Amino acid sequence: MGCWRGPSTVLACLLLLRPLPSPACPAACRCSSGEADCSKHALREVPQSLSANTSTLWLGYNFITALGPQSFPPLPGLLLLSLPHNHLVLIHSQALVGLGALQELDLSNNYLTALTPETFLPLTSLATLNLGSNRLGELDPGVLRALPQLQALLLQDNPWVCSCGILPLWHWLSHNREKVREESLLLCRVPEHLNEYPIMDFRNESFRQCQETSLSAQHYITFLIIGPFSFMASIFFCTFMGSIIVVYHNLRRESHFWRRPRICRGH
């Protein structure tokens, strides 16, 4: 056949018959059919040699403490990202850029205390978000509003502070109740008299005092700035007006003096 015409032709045929190399798989992972299982390997960061075709990434039970702006390699087809039981305390606002296809994100059983809406803006396809068993006392509802396709939300087993600060989150949960999973486990931790009280059992009247008296920190700062300034301005204005009145009366008195008729004495 044609493949035996010469050494170079034989080499070319052998190269064509050789199987294609398999997609990259980090040494700490097991990879197959677009899935990379990198769990339980004491990893402290996300492996960088993952295949760009990865659709499912398991990273649970490791020692990852933070997700920075370049923690993930390009993974345009990633659909599921699982990071439970790590030591996550921080997620950078640019950490999830490039994961726009992601549909499910599991961040449960970590040490997260705060999240920003900017972090989740790239996740326009996310349908399921698990934030259970973290250290969240409050959650900006802007985080949830940044997820237009969100269908399932898990927030159970967090130390929720049921003060006036939780009112915006309660409003969002009340209007999106069908998206909240395990809502019976969404319980207050603080203050003590509300410990283990179900957040979803609150009603509008529960926050009446907050709506009547609460002022934001910005309002307090405004009052602190405007108050002393207004006081000094009022003193200056009163002093200025008082001076004008005194000068006016002095001028009137002198005017009357010069207009007074003089008596001429005869010689």
Q: Could you characterize what this model shows?
A:
The chain is α/β, with parallel strands linked by helices and 267 residues long. Helix content is 29%, strand content 12%. The strands form three sheets. Strands 1-2-3-5-7-8-9-11 form an eight-stranded mixed beta sheet, with no helix packed on it. A two-stranded parallel ribbon has the order 4-6. It starts with 6 loop residues before the first helix and ends in an 8-residue tail after the last helix. The relative contact order is 0.06.
Look at the structure and give the mean pLDDT.
85
User: How would you describe the oligomerization state of the chains in this entry?
Assistant: single chain
Summarize the main sheet: 8 strands, mixed
Alpha-carbon Rg, integer:
36 Å
Q: Level of helix content?
A: 25-40%
Briefly note the structural class of the backbone: alpha/beta
Distance between the termini: 159 Å
What would the principal axes of the Cα set say about the shape? elongated
Keywords:
elongated, 12 strands, disordered C terminus, alpha/beta, eight-stranded mixed sheet
Quick take:
Helices cover 29% and strands 12% of the residues. The chain has helices at 7-17, 117-120, 142-145, 167-175, 208-213, 217-259, and strands at 30-32, 35-37, 56-58, 66-67, 80-82, 90-91, 104-106, 128-130, 152-154, 160-161, 180-181, 188-190.
Annotate the secondary structure layout.
Elements: H1 7-17, E1 30-32, E2 35-37, E3 56-58, E4 66-67, E5 80-82, E6 90-91, E7 104-106, H2 117-120, E8 128-130, H3 142-145, E9 152-154, E10 160-161, H4 167-175, E11 180-181, E12 188-190, H5 208-213, H6 217-259
Parallel strand pairs: 2-3, 3-5, 4-6, 5-7, 7-8, 8-9, 9-11, 10-12
Antiparallel strand pairs: 1-2
